Amino acid sequence: MKNAARRPTAGKRPWTTSVVGATVIVVAAAVVSATVNPLLGRAIHWDWMAGLAAVLFVGLALSFRNRWL
User: Fold this and answer.
1) What is the pTM of this model?
2) Which of 11, 43, 55, 68 is in Cβ range 3.0-4.6 Å of 63 for a Cys bridge?
3) DSSP code of 1?
4) What backbone torsions phi and psi does residue 13 show, to the nearest 5 degrees?
5) Contact between residue 66 and residue 12 where contact means Cβ atoms under 8 Å apart
6) 69 CB-near residues (< 8 Å, 6+ apart)
7) C-beta neighbour count of 41 within 10 angstroms
8) What angle do CA 59, 22, 25 make, to 5 degrees?
Protein backbone atom coordinates (compact mmCIF):
# COMPACT_ATOMS: atom_id res chain seq x y z
CA MET A 1 0.00 0.00 0.00
CA LYS A 2 2.97 2.32 0.34
CA ASN A 3 3.32 2.64 -3.43
CA ALA A 4 -0.25 3.94 -3.76
CA ALA A 5 0.48 6.81 -1.38
CA ARG A 6 3.61 7.96 -3.23
CA ARG A 7 3.55 11.26 -5.07
CA PRO A 8 4.13 11.15 -8.81
CA THR A 9 7.67 12.12 -9.74
CA ALA A 10 8.39 15.46 -11.33
CA GLY A 11 10.41 13.84 -14.12
CA LYS A 12 10.02 14.26 -17.84
CA ARG A 13 6.73 13.68 -19.62
CA PRO A 14 6.47 11.05 -22.36
CA TRP A 15 7.29 12.20 -25.90
CA THR A 16 3.79 11.35 -27.11
CA THR A 17 2.19 13.74 -24.63
CA SER A 18 4.71 16.45 -25.49
CA VAL A 19 4.23 16.10 -29.24
CA VAL A 20 0.43 16.06 -28.99
CA GLY A 21 0.43 19.18 -26.79
CA ALA A 22 2.80 21.02 -29.12
CA THR A 23 0.76 20.00 -32.17
CA VAL A 24 -2.46 21.30 -30.64
CA ILE A 25 -0.91 24.70 -29.88
CA VAL A 26 0.76 25.08 -33.30
CA VAL A 27 -2.45 24.12 -35.14
CA ALA A 28 -4.43 26.58 -33.01
CA ALA A 29 -1.93 29.34 -33.83
CA ALA A 30 -2.20 28.58 -37.57
CA VAL A 31 -6.01 28.58 -37.43
CA VAL A 32 -6.10 31.90 -35.57
CA SER A 33 -3.62 33.40 -38.02
CA ALA A 34 -5.59 32.16 -41.03
CA THR A 35 -8.83 33.54 -39.58
CA VAL A 36 -7.78 36.88 -38.12
CA ASN A 37 -5.38 38.17 -40.79
CA PRO A 38 -7.96 38.27 -43.63
CA LEU A 39 -10.48 39.91 -41.30
CA LEU A 40 -7.95 42.69 -40.73
CA GLY A 41 -7.34 43.02 -44.47
CA ARG A 42 -3.86 41.53 -44.38
CA ALA A 43 -2.49 38.68 -46.42
CA ILE A 44 -1.26 35.62 -44.60
CA HIS A 45 2.45 35.11 -45.01
CA TRP A 46 2.58 31.32 -45.16
CA ASP A 47 6.33 31.31 -45.74
CA TRP A 48 6.77 33.01 -42.34
CA MET A 49 4.21 30.71 -40.75
CA ALA A 50 5.97 27.62 -42.10
CA GLY A 51 9.25 28.65 -40.49
CA LEU A 52 7.62 29.88 -37.31
CA ALA A 53 5.46 26.78 -36.92
CA ALA A 54 8.46 24.45 -37.17
CA VAL A 55 10.44 26.38 -34.56
CA LEU A 56 7.39 26.77 -32.32
CA PHE A 57 6.61 23.04 -32.56
CA VAL A 58 10.13 21.95 -31.57
CA GLY A 59 10.34 24.51 -28.77
CA LEU A 60 6.96 23.56 -27.34
CA ALA A 61 7.64 19.83 -27.58
CA LEU A 62 10.89 20.25 -25.64
CA SER A 63 9.21 22.56 -23.13
CA PHE A 64 6.40 20.11 -22.46
CA ARG A 65 8.83 17.20 -22.30
CA ASN A 66 11.02 18.91 -19.69
CA ARG A 67 8.00 20.34 -17.83
CA TRP A 68 9.05 23.95 -18.44
CA LEU A 69 5.40 24.75 -19.25
Assistant:
1) 0.69
2) 68
3) -
4) -80, 160
5) yes
6) 60, 63
7) 6
8) 110
Burial of 64 (0-12, 13-18, 19+ CB in 10 A): buried
Amino acid occupying residue 44 = I
- 3-state helix, strand, coil split of the chain in percent (to 5) is 70, 0, 30
The Cα–Cα gap between 54 and 30 comes to 11
Q: What angle do CA 29, 33, 37 make, to 5 degrees?
A: 165
Q: Dihedral of CA 43/53/23/10: which sign?
A: negative
Q: Where residue 11 falls among pLDDT bands split at 50, 70, 90? A: confident
